[in-house]
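Q: Please design a sequence for this.
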């Protein structure tokens, strides 16, 4: 299992369209993937779970992955959250 704490760099955050894209990308991995914000832990493959977290730019979140492709999942998904690359 890998855990990585991040500061969200997406503008305005992980809302609507970006949340859908994040969930789709998370769903492409076989690992179990979760996002945690303020002690709330939600499945990263659930759009409703992601929306419940209300993740905004500047928020501190923990990305958790457990499975055979956990390293790749954390690398790719953390890149999305910190806005390392253009959409």
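A: Design:
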């Amino acid at each position: 299992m890998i855990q990585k704490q991040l500061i969200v760099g997406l503008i305005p955050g992980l809302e609507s369209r970006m949340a859908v894209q994040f969930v789709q990308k998370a769903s492409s991995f076989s690992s179990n993937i979760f996002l945690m914000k303020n002690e709330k832990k939600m499945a990263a493959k659930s759009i409703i779970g992601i929306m419940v977290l209300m993740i905004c730019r500047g928020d501190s979140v923990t990305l958790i992955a457990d499975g055979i492709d956990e390293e790749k999942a954390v690398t790719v998904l953390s890149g999305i959250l910190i806005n390392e690359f253009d959409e």
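Q: Thanks. Anything notable?
A: Helices lie at 16-27, 47-53, 70-81. The chain has a mean pLDDT of 93.
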